[in-house]
Design a protein that fits this description.
Largest sheet: 5 strands, mixed
Structural class: alpha/beta
Helix content: 40-55%
Order of helices and strands: EEHEHEHHHEHHHHHHH
Strand content: 5-15%
Shape: globular
Radius of gyration: 18 Å
Distance between the termini: 26 Å
Strand order of the largest sheet: 1-2-5-3-4
């Protein structure tokens, strides 16, 4: 088990994605960049563990409907800034629509994830939240936690984008992204997840299809970056043009997070 993974009773995929070497010969500070799945089922003990982390800002990447269905639990005295989106088109979440109507095979799951990652960097709600997140990184006096529902796709992409900005090497970036598969133990949980999906949708998915859909693969992240480069020329250009991360903001983030 990776030491980056933080143990919680009922918050999945909680980990520190700092403490990596950068191309500039510096190191990302540990304890300042945190990521997880949602906190709706957090135990009281979990809330105390969260409290001890000194979180200054929480970035909730979920849609308004997701937040209503699974509201976050907060510890007593919670005072962190909460950054969340307000754009709600009322549409069913894409992954739910896929599970109800798509071909539930490993190949179709991977095709869906490839398409999802190619769209993810350009979704209007994501652009707003990502931009606000990077401003928070330059201002927050403490840790910044990002999370979505499972803490793997929206969260995983944003963590990778942060690693790129800070100069973390691509190998470390991808290795960190893939830690989701260790944190969640999809192979062990796939049968139970498949049964829940069948109850929810009335459709049967193989364990392999569940792992392909609910896990992460390096190819998914590569698809997102390939689409960014196709549209903007480079990831740095995307950061500046789409998210407003100019040289001054970038320097502020590096000053707070690099040692």
């Amino acid at each position: 088990m990776s030491p980056r993974l933080l143990r919680f009773d009922a918050i999945d995929n909680f980990r520190d994605y700092g403490d990596y070497a950068t191309a500039a010969g510096r190191r990302v500070r540990p304890g300042r960049l945190l990521r997880s799945a949602h906190h709706a089922r957090a135990s009281d003990a979990d809330l105390e563990r969260v409290k001890a982390l000194g979180i200054a800002a929480v970035v909730d990447l979920r849609r308004p409907g997701e937040r209503r269905d699974q509201p976050s639990r907060r510890h007593e005295g919670f005072a962190a800034a909460v950054i969340e989106g307000g754009l709600d088109d009322g549409a069913e979440a894409p992954h739910i629509a896929f599970l109800k109507s798509g071909d539930l095979t490993p190949d179709s799951g991977r095709r869906f994830m490839d398409m999802t990652y190619r769209r993810l960097p350009f979704d209007a709600a994501h652009l707003d939240l990502f931009a606000r997140y990077f401003r928070a990184l330059a201002q927050a006096d403490g840790a910044v936690l990002i999370h979505c529902a499972a803490g793997k796709d929206r969260t995983g992409f944003l963590a990778a984008l942060t690693h790129h900005l800070l100069g973390v090497g691509r190998d470390d970036m991808v290795e960190d992204y893939l830690l989701t598969n260790t944190a969640v133990d999809l192979a062990g949980r796939a049968p139970a997840i498949a049964r829940r999906l069948e109850k929810m949708t009335g459709r049967v998915a193989s364990d392999a299809a569940v792992v392909a859909f609910l896990g992460v693969e390096a190819a998914y992240l590569e698809a997102a970056f390939a689409e960014i480069e196709a549209r903007h020329g480079s990831v740095d250009a995307y950061l500046e043009q789409a998210l407003g991360v100019d040289s001054a903001l970038r320097a502020g983030i590096e000053a707070r997070l690099s040692a």
